[in-house]
């Protein structure tokens, strides 16, 4: 099944659920209209009041309060017994679940109208034989129903359901309802609204997700930039304050402070000898303040970075020049730069 067919069916289900919910909500407050002779009788279930107005009077509208109440209510039209035709039929009890289809197929046999020209309803009456269903079918022509609904519409009343009058035995039978009679043309507007709402929701969700992703990426970038700036400022402040504090000390204390904060060449060489593997050796070593640069030969140059960082004496270890093979091609010439962390003693001693 194509995805567009599935979507159309899903939208139709949503539309009918929406219309059904609206009908049930409005049905909590209902108005019943009955024709008695040449008058319409309007009964309000909420206030238990009855209003009477002439039928068939052209150009005469209902009072505004009745029209406003009808707009918020579920309007039921009860046709008089004179407009209803009743027929009886029997069906096997096993066919109870198929009763609606059976009745529709028998409309033209029971009544003088085609199924499309009639508004009908049915109910099952109790019988002596449990294996037989006694079905009472009530019907009226669509012309009679449309005429009555049109007259009420001209007065400002929108009919939601048409039922058979009380003159037919012990209860009302629904002959027509706006929800059950909803066709594709009736549902087109609601279907378009539902489809538009779904498309709008999807677009809004995508827009929010894209915005959130871009905002998160921008925030991460700003956080990294701010963190880098803060770290630079902190190092500058700490370095400046440390130099100023050391310069303000007495000569003896200044010498001791410089000794404690300056890298010791012997300690650096010892740390390098412990961190570098035996398969590598140095050809150059240069210390400029806290910056150490070493050049040498090794069989695996990238493997030297991790041991130097784990030693605890070196930070920001990286290559400051390309690594190349030596003349015989057996080893690599490396150029490593690091920041020396001042330590007086080698760990483990």
Task: Give an account of the 3D structure.
The protein is of the alpha+beta class. It has two domains: 188 residues, Nucleotidyltransferase, domain 5 (2-Layer Sandwich), CATH 3.30.420; 82 residues, 2-Layer Sandwich (Gyrase A, domain 2). 43% of the residues lie in helices and 26% in strands. It contains eight helices and 14 strands. It has a six-stranded mixed β-sheet with strand order 3-2-1-4-8-9. Strands 10, 11, 12, 13 and 14 form a five-stranded antiparallel β-sheet that branches. Strand 6 and strand 7 form a beta hairpin. Helix 1 crosses helix 5. The longest helix is centred in the middle third of the chain and has 64 residues. It is elongated, with a radius of gyration of 47 Å. The relative contact order is 0.08. The model has no long low-confidence stretch (mean pLDDT 79).
CATH class label of the largest domain = Alpha Beta
Strand order of the largest sheet: 3-2-1-4-8-9
- Tell me the span between the first and last alpha carbons: 78 Å
- Overall pLDDT metric: 79
Q: In angstroms, what is the radius of gyration?
A: 47 Å
Looking at the overall shape, the CATH architecture of the largest domain is 2-Layer Sandwich
Largest sheet features: 6 strands, mixed
User: The CATH topology of the largest domain is what?
Assistant: Nucleotidyltransferase, domain 5
State which percent range the strand residues make up. Answer: 25-35%
Low-confidence stretches: none
Q: How many β-strand runs?
A: 14
* Helix content, binned percent: 40-55%
- Estimate nothing, just give the exact number of structural domains: 2
Q: Spell the H/E element sequence.
A: HEEEHEEHEEHEEHHHEEHEEE
Going by helix content, strand content and strand pairing, the class is alpha+beta
- Given the C-alpha coordinates, what overall shape results? elongated
Number of helices: 8
